[in-house]
Amino acid sequence: MAVVEVRELVKEFDGGRVHAIDGVSLAAAAGEYLVLLGPSGCGKTTLLRTIAGLEQPTSGDVLIGGHVVTGLPPRARQIAMVFQSYALYPHKTVLANIVFPLRAAGMEREERERKARWAAGLLGIEPLLNRKPRQLSGGERQRVALARAMVRDPQVFLLDEPLSNLDAKLRASARDELKRFQEDLGTTTIYVTHDQAEAMGLGDRIAVLNAGRVVQTGPPVEVYDDPADTFVATFIGSPPMNLIPHDGRLVGFRPEHLLPAEVVPGERVTVPLEVDRMEYLSGDRHVYGTVSRIGERTRVVARLPATVDTPITAGRTHSFAVPARRLRFFDSRTGQRAAPVRLDG
Ligand SMILES: Nc1ncnc2c1ncn2[C@@H]1O[C@H](COP(=O)(O)OP(=O)(O)OP(=O)(O)O)[C@@H](O)[C@H]1O
After folding, report:
1. Are residues 19 and 87 in the same domain?
2. Which of 151, 152, 147, 180 is nearest to 162 (CA)?
3. Is 326 helix (H, G, I), strand (E, B) or coil?
4. Based on the number of CB atoms within 10 Å of its own CB, is 67 exposed (0-12), middle (13-18) or buried (19 or more)?
5. 101 phi and psi, to 5 degrees?
6. 125-166: per-residue pLDDT in tens?
7. If you write DSSP's letter for every residue of 127-193 in order, what string do you get?
8. What residue stretches are annotated with the ABC transporter domain (predicted)?
9. Which of 40, 80, 102, 139 could potentially form a cystine with 112 if both were Cys, beta carbons 3.0 to 4.6 Å apart?
């Protein structure tokens, strides 16, 4: 059953001048980790705030647990939220901040402190329990806000970039904790991020948003391998998918699928790559160059894993190839997926 669902949701601001959400229908199943991914300003936060009840939709409905909750206040929705601006009570200690919702719900002191210590332990903030928010770093405050949401055993967890203030290492471990916590408790989670690595790592499913609309929904691997349009193809993946204009189409392939021809067996399209630059990144070689055979002359990037040790020199042309099954085709006018065409080579 869908625990959270939005139907034909529209949210306008400024008397209709801003279409923050432009007809979104989306559902998160029980226990699912759904990630909303998209560039800045695409409407992710507005969508989450509307689900939470902090914004009223211009039209459309929000359902939680199968019931229409449009019009109900946030506290009637059995959800816990953590937003970018984690509103902590400045005069309370970290511990008092975390237990606050439990206290309000009438839980016994011992029980609420046990829960708070459990959440604080998970997030590595136990040593900070007696401090005040102003004595914490941004990342620590963010973890306190997360802990406060976790102790409530909510039916639904709404998280808006809750890890944005953590450094890379802490972020990775907090992401891990969050995922494990979510799996253990099976809490339906909707998680907003503009960070595709986070989306790919956390989500059971990703909904990619662009300009107030959902462009594609699916498991990370599907969205990555079979992007619905050129927006998804280039927004997801780093470096993004290569796109080569060819006869009204764009021929797309991921950088890791453009490899020295000698290591690409089977049905393939070979292309001479005029290499102009190379970068070494975490053991991979990123090879930048220009191809001319598939379609128009286009600058592309190839990503070679450390296991491919073919010598490549900038300033030379090397024979590269893409496995035929890795090619994706898009309509160059609409950007939508299109039927494949035969390529020479
Ligand atoms: N209260 C508001 N009044 C007017 N316009 C708004 C309001 N809130 C959001 N918007 C506009 O709606 C659009 C969507 O904003 P939203 O904050 O949902 O995007 P986002 O995807 O969460 O962006 P970010 O990743 O930068 O937080 C933007 O164009 C934004 O300027």
Report:
1. yes
2. 147
3. helix
4. exposed
5. -65, -30
6. 999 999 999 998 877 888 898 889 888 878 888 998 887 777
7. GGTTS-GGGS-HHHHHHHHHHHHHTT--SEEEEESTTTTS-HHHHHHHHHHHHHHHHHHT-EEEEEE
8. 4-236
9. 102
Tens of pLDDT along 218-277? 999 999 999 999 999 999 998 999 999 999 999 999 999 999 999 999 999 999 999 999
How many angstroms is it from 158 CA to the middle of ligand 1? 17
Residues 202, 122: one domain?
Answer: yes
**How many other CB atoms sit within 10 Å of the CB of residue 142?**
27
Kindly report the CATH number assigned to the domain that includes residue 257: 2.40.50.140
> 267 in ligand 1 pocket by Cβ < 6 Å?
no
- Report CA(209)–ligand 1 centroid distance (Å): 13
40 lines ligand 1 (CB under 6 A): yes
What is residue 104's predicted lDDT score, i.e. its pLDDT? Answer: 83
320: domain range? 240-331
Q: What is the ipTM score, two decimals?
A: 0.95
